[in-house]
Amino acid sequence: MRVLAIETSCDETAAAVVRDGRTVEGNSVASQIEIHQPFGGVVPEVASRAHVSAMAPVIKEAMAQAEIGWEQLDLVAATMGPGLAGSLLIGLNTAKGLAYGRGLPLLGVNHLVGHIYANWILDDSEDEEPEFPLLCLVVSGGHSDLVLMRGHDDLVRIGRTLDDAAGEAFDKVARILGLGFPGGPIMQKTAAEGDASRYPLPRAWLKGTYDFSFSGLKTATLHLVQRFPQGQVPVPDIAASFQEAVADVLSAKTAQAAEEFGARQVAVAGGVSANRRLREMVQSRSPVPVRMPPLHYCTDNAAMIGSAAYYRWMSGARTELDVDVQPNLPVA
Ligand code: KG4
Ligand code: ZN
User: What is the CATH number of domain 134-291?
Assistant: First the structure.
């Protein structure tokens, strides 16, 4: 079964051709980073317009890489939420048009579930499918969720963030430190030159729950920065101490949940799962084997949507042509 998948939930316009949920035949991502950089963050209206102009070229590119024509597609899938409404609309409506025009079925896909399925995509290192029960840490720019997955159609959210998402905290602290946008990758790079034990920053353990909170850590980091005269802020040490605090909480709670729920494997997903320190800490603390997507499938892409679409379709999920975007759709 061959899926054409479209992803436009935030600031990447992406399309992919995925066969049988695991083999990526074509994958194209047009990033809007440079467009939003002068604003220090994603501007929704600007994002929607950029999706409109990038959409057709990105689809053509994915189809060309896959060396297929329309008649070789079996399903059109697109992210239906969560995300920016105006951005989601471009991708979902494009998918509707293609499905209607070609007489193909359409499937709306949950973006966060898509992130989890990045762990199903075949790459050089691992060819076994992830095993259920799978404990998933989904950490992106807008979400930080712990999800227990007992099967392709059995997902339960066991924890979430009460305030900022992990990626959002990385982005905000990067701004406080004057590192620019997007914050995650530059924070990781800067932290590599710093001492993570220099400034012990607070961790919100929220004991007895699998929920997260990062706004106190963000504020504590701001107050720490304000203690130094301008130009004398120890930026690498603060970046490293912040990254350590985030990775510590995320990895400890993931490991604990895997233990409590008897998970056979742990999977990390979402943009923040590209973070090297987080990957190391989850790996070293997890009581069971850990699945991690290759870096280019951690951040937003359409291949993960194509993979999720295949497994959702196979377990009976269907959406009609009048399906609408759901900007606040939870992971489960
Ligand atoms: O999943 P994603 O690409 O988009 C959303 O669905 O939100 O995640 C983007 C988030 C941003 O907040 C970005 O700063 C963060 O992931 N991120 C990272 C790293 N790479 C991306 N955070 C920490 N370390 C990284 N290496
Ligand atoms: Zn995402």
Answer: 3.30.420.40
Query: In CATH terms, is domain 2-121+297-314 a member of 1.10.287.130?
Result: no
* Residue ranges matching CATH 3.30.420.40 in the chain: 2-121+297-314, 134-291
184-222 residue pLDDT tens: 999 999 999 999 999 999 999 999 999 999 999 999 999
β partners of residue 146: 137, 159
- CA–CA distances in Å: residue 306 to residues 101, 106, 107, 227, 319: 20, 12, 10, 48, 15
Q: Give the distance, in angstroms, between the CA of residue 61 and the centroid of all CA atoms in the same chain.
A: 22
For the entire predicted model, the pTM comes to: 0.97
Measure 300 CA to ligand 1 centroid, in angstroms.
9
Which residue, judged by its Cα, is nearest atom 16 of ligand 1?
271
**Ligand (nearest to CA of 302):** 2
CB-based contact 5:305 (threshold 8 Å): yes
> What is residue 205's three-state secondary structure?
coil
Cα separation values, 55 from 11, 90, 91, Å: 12, 8, 8
Residue pLDDT, tens place only, 127-179: 899 999 999 999 999 999 999 999 999 999 999 999 999 999 999 999 999 99
To which residue do tokens 């994915």 refer? 62
For residue 99, report the distance from its CA to the centre of ligand 1, in Å: 31
| Cβ pair 99, 64 in contact under 8 A | no
Residue 241 near ligand 1, beta carbon < 6 Å: no
